[in-house]
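re the bet — no i am not wrong, look at it urself. input seq straight from the record:
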Amino acid sequence: MIYHIHGAEYHLFYKNASLFVRKRIEHIIEMSDALIVLSEEWKDYYFKTFNKEKIYVVNNIVEKREVFKKQINPIISILFLGKIGQRKGVFDLLEVLKIHKNELLGLVNINIGGNGETSLLKLKIKEFELEDIVNYVGWVTGDKKDLLYKSNDVIILPSYNEGLPISLLEAMSYAMPLISTNVGGIPQILEDKVNGIMIEPGNKEQIFEAIKFYVDNPNKIVNHGANSYMRITPFFPEEVMKQLEIIYNEI
């Protein structure tokens, strides 16, 4: 039995669970022949918390795409894709835009896609008078999502908890820089000032400074995006399949 764990808040669920649920979790992990997790950070957590020896890190899979040349645009388009809610930090982003709207208006365009607390999102956009800088595009899949990745310059995900977000990995496969937090497995894929900007969860000033960095240094979008693409190759299907084959043969 292989237990493949993806939950971004598994540690919080376990910590806050009843004694009965905690014992069931411990039993499942103990009975498993191996655990598969998304990053070295999560491997360290499960080893220290459950004293499990056989833990493997296996990357999420993202589709391999042909690299296309990014152009530097006069208005920087920044994309958020994910569950609309506090955990992903999207409302922190809106607070930042409310405070610094005059500094960013005409220089930045924010596109937000996802489901969840969409009514609250729309309410905040209206309340903060952000209609001319923020565009909510709804839940996106397929060609629409592909177009968003291609037409935006930078992806932002100011999350409080994560495993290893697919939205960031997909953005890297489109040669996009990342603005994101130092949580979960994100430090595995994001190196500050190399393929994006690392921020702390809930630090609104750092969110603004990261956005402003790309406004002031648009040439870094191309440079950091190229570095993102180089870092994403281990997440392509053929590489992940090799990892899984090794694990199954060992077990």
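see?? The CA atoms of residues 127 and 157 lie 22 Å apart. told u. also The first strand starts at residue 2 and ends at 4. so pay up
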